[in-house]
């Protein structure tokens, strides 16, 4: 019963986060400079040849960038936003190493809960869009631990978030990119659409202005095109990502998947199936 109540509480917090409100509040100039450092780490973490190296890099960078002196200068919302991004990165590489790592899932759960509690406590306050996007990264990764009915509810609220921002032209590159992934991964019966995914991947590329944005927009569009059998555009976007981050361990792994007939998107969605096909131990 305690476990059921806990899961229900997490769902309520998630739906509270998605409740309608404004999302246009800007970070300060200083906070935005810190945010760009966080994004730099997210990009550079993918240059290493092993997950353990990436985890170490993320942890060390977090300690350096979110030092005590920095934390004293930024808002509570900026603090939890930057922490969300760092925790997700650490979780990502721990998951890549071992998808059943209990410590990794505990790390994600604790930050997810902390983030949702913050959102519930500041329900009527204007929010920065990166706070919202960072929270959705956490919730999307935590979905395997939730009931299917809860996943559907949260997923539909997330769709509303993307649709509203795109409709009122308040979407940025990351919003388009995340929306593209949502429409790609969601089943058609639940609102998924490959045509919308393609459109939003293209918009993400069009609005990308930093190496961080250009890398992820190009890489994931390349994998989308790979799944569609569009070899020329796949190579075009993959090469663009390689030019931004040469000799990337992350890209080398993705290329191996592609050479074996799988996209990184397929790997993310059906890791066990892909690894079994490759004869790779989990």
Could you walk me through the main structural features you see in this protein, from its secondary elements to its overall organization?
The protein has 282 residues and is mostly helical. It contains 15 helices and no strands. The longest helix has 22 residues, at 76-97. It is globular and about 50 Å long. Residues 1-24 have low confidence and may be disordered.
Assign the structural class, choosing from mainly alpha, mainly beta, alpha/beta, alpha+beta, or little secondary structure: mainly alpha
| Mean pLDDT level | 89
The amount of beta strand, in percent, is under 5%
Helix and strand succession? HHHHHHHHHHHHHHH
Helix percent band? over 70%
Question: How far apart lie the N and C ends?
Answer: 32 Å
- Ranges with pLDDT <50 over ≥5 residues? 1-24
Number of helices: 15
Query: Gyration radius, to the nearest Å?
Result: 18 Å
Overall geometric form = globular
Number of strands: 0
Topology:
Layout: H1 2-17, H2 29-44, H3 51-65, H4 68-71, H5 76-97, H6 102-121, H7 129-142, H8 148-167, H9 173-185, H10 194-207, H11 211-227, H12 231-244, H13 249-259, H14 264-269, H15 271-278
């Amino acid at each position: 019963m305690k476990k059921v109540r806990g899961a229900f509480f997490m769902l309520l917090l998630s739906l509270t986060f998605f409740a309608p409100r404004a999302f246009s509040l800007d970070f300060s100039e200083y906070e935005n400079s810190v945010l760009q450092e966080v994004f730099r780490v997210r990009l550079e973490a993918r240059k290493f040849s092993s997950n353990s190296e990436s985890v170490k890099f993320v942890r060390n960078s977090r300690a350096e960038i979110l030092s005590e002196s920095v934390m004293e200068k930024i808002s509570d919302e900026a603090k939890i936003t930057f922490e969300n991004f760092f925790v997700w990165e650490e979780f990502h590489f721990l998951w890549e190493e071992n998808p059943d790592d209990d410590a990794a899932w505990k790390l994600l759960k604790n930050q997810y809960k902390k983030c949702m509690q913050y959102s519930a406590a500041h329900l009527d306050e204007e929010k920065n869009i990166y706070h919202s996007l960072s929270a959705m990264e956490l919730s999307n990764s935590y979905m395997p631990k939730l009931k299917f009915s809860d996943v559907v509810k949260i997923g539909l609220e997330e769709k509303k978030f993307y649709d509203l921002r795109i409709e009122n032209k308040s979407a940025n590159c990351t919003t388009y990119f995340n929306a593209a992934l949502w429409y790609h991964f969601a089943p058609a019966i639940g609102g998924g659409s490959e045509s919308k995914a393609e459109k939003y991947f293209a918009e993400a590329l069009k609005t990308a202005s930093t190496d961080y944005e250009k890398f992820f927009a190009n890489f994931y569009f390349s994998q989308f095109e790979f799944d569609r059998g569009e070899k020329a555009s796949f190579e075009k976007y993959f090469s663009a990502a390689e030019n931004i981050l040469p000799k990337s361990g992350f890209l080398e792994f993705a290329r191996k998947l592609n050479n074996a007939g799988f996209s990184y998107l397929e790997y993310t969605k059906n890791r066990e199936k892909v690894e079994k096909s490759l004869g790779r131990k989990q």
